[in-house]
Every structure is written in C-alpha cells, then in structure tokens.
Amino acid sequence: MESEAPAGWEFFDSVDFPTDRTDDPLGRARIRHVVTAVVVGHEGAAWLPRLTEALWALDRRPERLIAVDTGSTDETAELLAEMPAVEPVVSLSARSGFGTAVARGLEAVGFAPIPSAVGPYGDDGGLTVVEWLWLLHDDCAPAPKALEHLLFQATLAPDTGVWGPKLRLWPRDRELLEVGVTTSLGGRRDTGIENGELDQGQHDQPRQVLAVSSAGMLVRRDVWESLHGFDPRLPMFRDDIDFGWRASRAGFKVGVAPDAVVYHAQAAATGERALAGTRRHAYQLDRAHAYYTVLANAPGKLLPLLVLRFLLGTLVRSIWFLIGKTPSGAVDEWTALLGTLLAGGWTQARKDRRRLDRVPYDDIKYLFSRSVHALRHNLEETGSTISERLREAWADEPEEQVVTTARRAKSTARVAQDQPRWRRQLIRRPFLVAWVFLFLGALVAARSLIGGGVLRSNLLLPPHESLASLWHAAAAAPAGVTPPAWLGQFWALSAITFGPSGATNVILLGAIPLAALAAWVLLRAFVVDRVARAWGASAYGLAVFANGAVSQGRIGTCVAAIVLPLLGAAVHTVARRRRVVIQGSWRAAWFAGICQAILFAFTPALGLLVSVTLIAGAVLGLGWRRQARQLVFSVVLGLLLVLPWTIQLVLHPSRLGQEAGGPPTAAVGPGDSLAHLLTGTPQGAPVPWWFVVPLILVALLALTRQSRQRYELLGWFAALAGLAGTLVASRLGGGSGPLMFLMTAGWIIAITVAWDSIGKSRELILQGVLGLVLVATVVTAGFWLVRGDDGPLRRGPEQDLPAYLMSAQGPPQNASILVVRKDPESAMRFSLVRDGGPRMGSLEAAPTAEQTKPVTDVLSALGGGGTGEEGREFASLAIDYVYLPAPVDPTLMATLDSLPGLTRASADADDASWLVDRSKVEGKAPLQDDVRDLWRVLGIIAWIIALISCLPTARRTVAVPHGTHARRVS
C-alpha cells in the first residue's frame, strides 16, 4: 500500500491505543503475518470516505486490499477504486450477500502473495508465515492500530484462528457496541453490553468467545478454507455467529482483542440504506436467520425442545405485536419460523456440518448465553420499550413550540448544592412529599377499617365472594334486565387486586392518594409552578374525603374522582394541537373514550354531563375540525363500550342518578339545604359545609383579577356545570354526590391556575390569600387523619343473616331465603337471597315487578291474615327459609307460626326464621338468571380494541451486532 495519506486523515489520532510492542513477551518464535483485507460495499458512498481515511491512517496495513461492490447505484464503486493500493474492484449483483461477496472477491483476486522482503520484525525470511483474511464493511472504520493489535494478539495466542476487535459507535464515539458476541439457544444475540454503556476499559481483557462481528473480523486462511467461509444461506444477520459456532465445533478458538478498535455504523440495520442480498423485511430476515443458526448447529437431542421453545416465543411475540397494533410484525414472526422450519435448509446444513464435530457441545457450552440471562434481558428490554413508547405515545405528532418564559424559569426551585441529594430532590419535588403524606395518611385514616370481613355501608353492598361469582353477575340477570356495565370493569380491577374485596379496599381506602396522583397528571400539563401543582393535586385528593365518598362507601364517586383528571388530560392532549399540520391525537381520543365509558358505568349522571359538555365544546369551541371530531368520537366510543347498559339508561332515565355499589345518594336540593348545595358537600359528609367556604371565597377572588387564564375559566365552568347538574339531579330525585364533587374540583383548578399565574408574588394580600388556602387544606387533612375513613363505612360480615342461614346457602343445600322486613310503622319489603346475595350490582340488576309478582302475591296474602296455603306456595317457589330480621312485626310472626308447612327455626333474640317444608311440592324458583354470552364476548372484544388503540405502536427491532442496541425498522 502507498505511504502517503490524503488530507483529512487526522480524524484518528494517537489516543487510539498506541503501542510499540511487536514481539511476544514470552520469547516464543516470531511469526510473520500476511494479511488480505476484503471490503464489501453496497450503497456505501456516505461512509466510504471515512473508511478510506482510516485505511490511510493504519500503522500496520494489509498486504492486499480487495474491494467488492454488490450492485450499488451511487458512487460506491468509484470510491472503492480510490482506496489505497486497492485491487481492481470486483462487481457483483445486489442479491449477493456478504459472505458470497467475500468468497467471490477472493476467487477473482486471490490471497496476498508471500513477499520475500524484510518485514516489520526485521529479517523475517525464515520465519513461519501465517496468512490472514481481514473482513471490513463499507460503514466501518478501523482505528490506526486496529490491525496491529489484532496481529499482536494472534502472535500471543497462535492457537486462536479467529479474532475480532472491540466495536464502538460510528463515527468516533465512546459508546460500546460489541466486545465479542454469543447467542442463547433461543436465538437471542447477546454481548453482555448494557444499552448506552461507555468504553472505560471494563472489557479490555482478551478472552475466548463464541463469535465476533464480521466488521473487522480477522480469520486465519486455513480456518476460512476449512469452514468454506460464511454460509451462503445467511446473506446478512447472524452469519458471524454461525461462523464462530462452526469454528468452535471444529476445534478452532475464537478470541476478541479489545485493544483493537473498529467504529461501526450498522447502516443496513438502522435503515439508513436498503438491504443487500434479500428482498425480505429486516426483522423477518433476522428472526429467520436466528432460527436457522440454532437449528443448524445445536445438538440433535435438543431439537424437539428448541422447536417448542421457538413456537412459544413466536406466539408471545405475535401477541405483543397485535397488542401494539403492528400485525405485520406478527406475520413476520410466523413467516420467519414456519419458513425456516419448512424450507428444510437447516436439515441439509446439519448433514454438511457433521464433519465439524471435533469438539462436543458440552465443552463449548460455557460460551453460550444462559436462558435465564436471555429471559432477564428480554424482560428488561420489554420494560424499557413499554416505558419509552408510553412516553412517546401522545408526543409522536408535531406540537407547538414551547417557549421558555421567565415565569417558567423562576418556577424551578433553587437549592443549595451543599444539601444532601435526597433533601434537594424533595425540595424540587413538592408533590412527591405531599403524595407520600397522603399515602401514609390513607393508612392512618383506615385504621378502624383494617381487619376481617368486608367493607360495607348503607350505600355499599358487600362485594362478591370470588372472581367467578363477580364474572357471572357481570353477564347474568333476569330476563329483560341488563346487568350493570360497571361490574365488568370492576371484575378487571379485581383480577389484579386479589379479588373483589381487594378491589373495594383499593378504591375506597386508596381513593385519596390515587385521585391526587391523577390530578397531578392533569395539572402538570398546564401548571408550571411546582408548589401550586402540588397543592392542587393534594387538595383534589382531600376533596374526595370532604365529599363523603370514602366515609359513605360511594365507590362510584371514588372511581370518578380518579378517572376525571385522566379524562381531562386526554381531552387536553386532543384539543391543544390547534396550529399544527397534523392536529389532535387519536390515541388520546381512544383513551378519553375509555374514561368516559368508566364514568357512564360508575356514575351515569356525571358521565352524561361530561359527554354533553364535550360535545358542546367540540362543536362550539373547535368547530368541526379534526379535534372536534375526535372528541365527539370519544363520547360515542364511551357509549358503545358500555352497551347494552346505554340502552338501559335511555329506557330508564331514573337510573342516571344511581352510583355503582349500592343505593343512590340521598338527594340534595334547594328545598333541603342551600348551604350544602352551594358548597358542594352532600348531606352526611364527614366535614361541615363551612369547611369549603375559604376555597369558594378564594376562587371568587381570583375572578376579580384583570388577566384570567383560560384554564381558570374552564375550572369555573366545571364548577357551574356541577352546580347545574346537581340542581337537575336533585329535582329528579337522583343522587348528586358525583356532580357536587365536580363543583369542588372546578374550584380547585381555578385556584391552582390563578396561583400559577401569580407566581411567587411578594404582595402581602396575595400571600395572605394563599396562606388561607394552605391553612384550610391543612385543617382538612388534619380532620381527615383524626376522624378517619369510617362512619357509615364499616368492616363487617358479608351478610346480616344468622350463621346457620349463611351456611345453608352453600352446597349441598343451596338454600333460597326470603328476607321480609316489616315493622309496625312501615310497609312490607322483601328480598330473595340466593348464592350469598345480595351483592354489588344487585340493585341495578333487580328483577321487574312482573317477575316478582308471585312472591308479592303471597306476601300480600300474609299481610291480610293469610289463607293457610302460603306454606305450600312458598315451597312451590323453591323458597327454603323465611327470615324476619329485627324488629319483627308481632302480627306477621304470629301468622307465619300458624301456617302449615312452616317450622320455626332457631334465631337470635330479636329476629325469627321458618323452615319451609318442600318434601311434598316440586318447587320452581321464580327468578332465573339469563346469561348474555354474546354481549360478554362482544364487550371483551370491544374493550380489547379500545385498549390496544390507545396504546403506542410496537416496533420491530433487529438484533444487530451491538448487543442490546435494538434498531427500529418499522
């Protein structure tokens, strides 16, 4: 090669591991190395100038340089011809793979001849000659002493036939890509390099490995010829692992020389240029070659297990791609696996490689990546991928440029650097401190509700005993009655919270910290000041307590308090993109539809109010632009996801006032208590109504400012909408607790935005107002801790029945119990208790009056004194017990005692029960559940589609030769 380098070669300098050592320190006989370098290029005009500079800068240059061009359409051939002392360029078709190109280049030009001149070790005419093949990609650049270090290690370890350099990120980065490579038997490429790991000398020990990258690979000629080069069935991807695996099986060692550095760009894997040698998708090709490499080289006794492993892995990854809305990835998975298995190329490869089996698999087993390591890496990569894609989920469309203002700059807390790190972090994150206190406070406030039994109140029926019973209740109801939609959603939560009782505990006892966290997600979108944001989120969480939702056991309001901010964040994401080419966000619209479906199910009145407000705002405020259509779509989606419950609400508008879990909240209207109405505190709330007065006064005072933020006005709009909805709901006799909570939430948003716009004001009046707000919040929090969450909410037994009646409901008796409530001053009421009921959802799925008419007729006859046939009629209705809880009506008890077919059973002091004789009558239960399997299946499909649509799109990644650095290819 020529000795003069062109201008610009100073890209490399002396820091690239300089060395002057040329002799074996152990004093062994010196070896004369003859190197033939082969550069394969394909559409590499962007990288070849740098490679040319690197070849000029080499301290130890190869004796022959062969260049092969595989059908390039740019200036690659011309640039290859300009490399120093290069042989005439060999031209091949674009379908030629890397291994084929190297083989054709050697056939056309041949290895370098052995010169008789004096070499770098002095007079080497009588020295042992070792011929080497040095493989280079067109997008790599060896450091000046890369070849020298490779040959030096070859001198130190002459029994190693393949050497590889340390790969670092192109063009000259300290980030490590690879220092040797291995694979698991599942086909996962592994280098042991962490993502983004910098080269600090931590991997600088030469060692034996399974394989090295073909970028900079140094192969002894006899090894290359013995193995017949790279497998032509692997035009790219995994060809280096296959070659190293075959070399290890044949008894040739493979080593890595970390002092030799090569910079690599991986242009094909990163999508910077089209793939050469194949028309298949990069991901599909990578997976197919991974399967081929393992099947062609693994021990025969492991093949059945490996095929099963491939099938299971393909199934899991296919599901991942389908969830991630990338069906082409699932197609690639199955195409790669089935295509490899059925093509049969690997079977022929196994026959051809039997001659290589000089080293048993157990002797080189330690060179492979363990399956547990592969599983750990897969879990880590999956977690990081999910986290990354969720962060990008709603930010993948162009947004308005954020302008940094002085107020935003001042919002960052400045902390002295001499403070401990944990203290600095807490000062900079006030909400973290507030949320920790809320979380610990939730544990303290629930002190009297921890123990055996289940959470119950007069507004909360007991939860179901198991997931199976809850699943049945979500899809079964008497004919003509629709089971409530919220039971299915509650079942999904119960599945991850260890049962319905656990879900009830999480919703009620964790409502305050969870609502605060959801509010922080919303406020961080438009509130800059961290202290204001922390106060707003904390006050919002405490508003759940002030509303009485926790102490009264109103699950619907607690769920709404958690979902409302998330819905607001989704709507904000949709509506804020107004002056960009691509407007709105369909992912956010799908998520908003899911949130509205939850509101429709748990708090129908609040869901209706929010949906009407969104449609009005979309049409009047946004016109019929893309954002408006997305908001209307979210409302329609919410209604569709709760079908057929939506039809039930239309046919029976009175059910709009119900909340999930139990009876509707007592109505609060102008005729009852004006103070409770205006302050948004329902009757029976744990705090007096005047606790909220400071909040209202400050919110009103914020309206007097000359400059008001749009979000502040939106907060007041929400408060007024909640007030209007409360008036309408109370007039109709429905519950108004969730609507009154919306009033409080609106005031909190208004005050938070006003606080944020004021900033760190030094005016005493403003400081006094903010101090009043803080004091009121602290007092409310203290009252919450002292009072606790109990009240109407209590922890008790699942049923208010005697123990023997509760046990009689189980197998084998499966008794049906008629519970009749009547005292001298009230009308007769009854409930038919079966299978441990009544439970959550029983009120919404209660049978119609026509269906309960047989029982009503019998009880009406009893109220008139009885005819003597009531016992037989009870038996015909498949009723096993009649139970009268305290207080018992003496007249009714006497009538039941006198009826034939009824026998007084044991009971407590103040109640009574009778056993019905069913031995002579074939009874038939008056109420039979009708299971809606079709609606259940359709509902599951609809929710899966909605959840997948609001998730980010999955990416197909290629296991390129740099360990955990997966590259996006779709």
TrEMBL record:
Annotated keywords: Membrane, Transmembrane, Transmembrane helix
SUPFAM superfamilies in the record: Nucleotide-diphospho-sugar transferases (SSF53448)
Transmembrane segments: 431-450, 506-527, 539-568, 605-624, 631-651, 687-704, 713-733, 739-758, 765-786
Pfam families, A to Z: Glyco_tranf_2_3 (PF13641)
tRNA-binding keyword on record: no
Coiled-coil region list: none
PANTHER family documented for this protein: GLYCOSYLTRANSFERASE, SLR2126 PROTEIN
The protein's name: Glycosyltransferase, GT2 family
Originating organism: Kribbella sancticallisti
